[in-house]
Write a sequence for this structure.
């Protein structure tokens, strides 16, 4: 917060730290490339306390961290929403998450209702869970994912892809589970 170094929150035994970044929530994210236990570690940037119990698995040793901006993209609409269907603005909050996450998105015209689908995939591309979304109308929507897979068990810490599909269109966002 002061842009000054006050202590070393994490060091390795001669191995490479690929990248470090501080997000807009004051968390320091560190790419730990230690061969025996690689992954991403998360710290409180103000105190240096580690937030994650162990590194978040990324499969291969991580090299870079880039945060998505917390911006919403509106569906371009004209007149009275008669320009055709649209889907935009997918956000997952909170992100990273330890409990339930709210998935927010926007649907644009024409007026009426339609069905959709929410799917969650792990970092290896395996389906974690899927849920049918019924009677979606024009406007903002929020759906909750409790962090559980189709078998009802809590998913492990890691990176997940959340996708919402409505008709032929889909939007996706990443979420980190701690």
């Amino acid at each position: 917060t002061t842009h000054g170094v006050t202590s070393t929150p994490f060091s390795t035994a001669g191995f490479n730290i690929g990248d470090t970044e501080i997000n807009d929530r004051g968390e320091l994210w560190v790419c730990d490339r230690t061969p025996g236990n690689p992954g991403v570690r998360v710290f409180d940037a103000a105190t240096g306390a580690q937030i994650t119990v162990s590194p978040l698995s990324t499969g291969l040793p991580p090299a870079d961290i880039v945060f998505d901006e917390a911006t919403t993209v509106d569906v371009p609409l004209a007149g009275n929403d008669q320009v055709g269907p649209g889907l935009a603005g997918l956000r997952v909050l909170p992100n990273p998450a330890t409990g339930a996450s709210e998935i927010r998105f926007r649907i644009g015209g024409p007026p009426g209702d339609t069905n959709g689908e929410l799917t969650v995939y792990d970092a290896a591309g395996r389906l974690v869970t899927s849920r049918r979304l019924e009677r979606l109308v024009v406007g903002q929507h929020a759906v909750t994912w409790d962090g559980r897979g189709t078998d009802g068990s809590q998913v492990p810490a890691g990176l997940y892809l959340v996708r919402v599909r409505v008709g032929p269109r889909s939007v996706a966002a990443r979420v980190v589970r701690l």
About this structure: Confidence is low (pLDDT under 50) at residues 70-84.
